[in-house]
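pasting for the record
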Amino acid sequence: MGVRAGAWRKGAKLVSTSFISPAMAECAADILKWARESLAVENEHLHRPRGNQVVCPFVGPAMDNDSFYLAFHPEVGQHCEQLIEQIMMSYIPQSSIISGPRQSFLYE
């Protein structure tokens, strides 16, 4: 039996809803903990020439302002790179993609 979970942004605006099982909810909690403790912290092995040494400086602020999202696709196997790419691209608004002569890239 799954539980219905909703994602809201500040101001109670409904973003999206989905059904997740207790196992998926536990997995989501583990991922959020890992992101906060491993990606949103400084790492002594990073040696950027400027700025902080946080593994991913976007994760902490995204989590803090409630814009760090998880999407589960249990139908995808571990060796489905093309399908994973299609799913990832489906989450990016087409207006944010620029087509260049050799490749597509995102606004920074």
